[in-house]
Amino acid sequence: MREASVSRPLAAPTIGLDRAWRLPLALAALLALLLAGSLFAGPVTVGPRELLGALLGRNLSVAEIIVWELRVPRTLLAAMIGASLGLAGAVLQGLLRNPLAEPGLIGVSASAALGAVIAFYTGFAAAFPLGLPLGGMVGAGVAVAVLMILAGRQSSTLTLILAGVAVNSFAGALTALALNLSPNPYAAAEIVFWMMGSLADRSFQHLGVAAALTLPGWLLLISVGRSLDALSLGEEAATSLGFDLQAVRWRAVIGTALAVGAAVSVSGVIGFVGLVVPHLLRPLVGYQPARLLPVSALGGAVLLVATDIFVRMLAPGPELKIGVVTALIGAPFFLILLLRLRATSP
Amino acid sequence: MTALALDRVAVRFGDHVALDDASVTVSRGEMIGLIGPNGAGKTTLLRVAAGLLRPAGGRVLLDGRPIGTGDRRSRARLLAYLPQGAPCHWPLEVRRLVTLGRLPHLLPWQAPTGTDAEAVTSALDLADVGHLVGRDVLTLSGGERARVLLARALAVEPALLLADEPVSGLDPAHQLRVMTVLRARADAGTGVVVTLHDLGLAARFCRRLVVVDGGRVVADGTPADVLTPETLANVFRIRARVGTWQGSRYVVPWAVTDEGEGADSDQPVLHPAAAGRLR
Lengths: 346, 279
Fold this sequence. Notes:
Oligomer: heterodimer
Shape of chain B: globular
Order of helices and strands of chain B: EEEHEEHEHHHEHEHEEHHEEH
Structural class of chain A: mainly alpha
CATH topology of chain A: ABC transporter involved in vitamin B12 uptake, BtuC
Distance between the termini of chain A: 26 Å
Low-confidence stretches of chain B: 261-279
Order of helices and strands of chain A: HHHHHHHHHHHHHHHH
Radius of gyration of chain A: 21 Å
Largest sheet of chain A: none
CATH class of chain A: Mainly Alpha
Number of domains of chain A: 1
CATH architecture of chain B: 3-Layer(aba) Sandwich
Distance between the termini of chain B: 31 Å
CATH class of chain B: Alpha Beta
Largest interface: A-B, 34 and 49 residues
Low-confidence stretches of chain A: 1-16
Strand content of chain A: under 5%
Helix content of chain B: 25-40%
CATH superfamily of chain B: P-loop containing nucleotide triphosphate hydrolases
Helix content of chain A: over 70%
Number of helices of chain A: 16
């Protein structure tokens, strides 16, 4: 019995190789489909031929304006932000070895939201088109600076998280203070609505400014994959395998600040994607943190593009905010998942 | 050849002196049992030796060079560390977990090669866990999991293996299996340092024992030199039945020595040679 098993030792990794591509390819195909579908979704019907013509710039029509000015940037933003949330969630869950971690944990989202609220409040947001996202990005940057001071250079993961929790609640409190002191109810309502998260009416300018921060953020996040694998064995074993955990922590934090900070600055706070997506996909990659990263990025993009299509297909009326929908669908779904997990686990 | 040398190492945690003036050398092909009571500084010594803890004083030399210098990955290929109660945080498949031991041999984006697969297979065989391939590591029994994590450390194919209490919490059969694997590694040329609480296993499987007490190395020698009634009384506060059977030494802890009976803290530290004469 034992001899038989020893004689087929190569089974797992060789099968893993072709199987390893199946899931990312399937998700990429699904994403491509949704991206295309997203260009059709909206109150104005644009047929396939019109859409193609508009994309190629052949007819200067209303269709072209709708597609290029509204649907394309919105679709790309949804994909980019979803990928950022999925990726950052997977990295933080791997870093903390805790499936309940999510991108908001280290306080970057709350600080970016605070930055945007301050931009609202001071009129900086109204002064020029990108005032709001820039305010948010400054907020995320300040959060990282505060984390670095609080957690110090020789930080443990625990001090980093505690510092993140502190930054998170302080930024939340300051945001509440801004609402509390709001000069008129309309300003307060505007801030509240913005914070619910939305992708409506975002332009290529928004996309460009967010992408400039998001892409380096992705690179930092993706680069920690192998270290997260090693961290499955605990911090000491990971260090003994040659990984500099101090560098890994900061790459994860700065990468999250860049990618998620940019996302919040442009779209407001979109919850649950960064928590649910890695959690859902983890069993499909054999629980290996490094393999989860690209898959989780694709999954986040799929989920957010799909949700955005759903939001746009709803009957006209007050816009249903995408952040509300992700939480509304995400939370019960997550509960069902947990219940099923509890039923199957020994 | 001395692979690892700890030279007058001192470690303090706040006011607490965890290690003081501790010197140990490890050569390739030898298996050292690191013994001492709880809180003596065994784990601290092992963590310093693994380069996980920077000592406040003294030096640690790995192949003649200070351990903090040089490339982390090349050090990781040379020296494997198996933490106490080695955890695994995700339900990884056994072979995939053991493959993590190959990370120091891989470039950041490189997939495991045939050489890596062979090293993993031989580590699985050495630790006798080949039959567990395909299982989720978190569903294994404590003894099986300990051996899988040992296989992970063996997969590094290190020149030095530092294992912190690899047999704690295991049943006797698993304890003997793990110790046999470590002994075989040492005989194959790896330098092995293992912390142990079971003096019997230490005496049987290690040809050299280092006794740590109060952060100091108080004895260093063969089991016969080290496990004397005096050391057992002074350091471990026990009386034990010590004997030889089938050419190996055995120790059966029997009774706790009374407070004050040969257990004063100002008792002279036993030198191995003196201990030998006393016996």
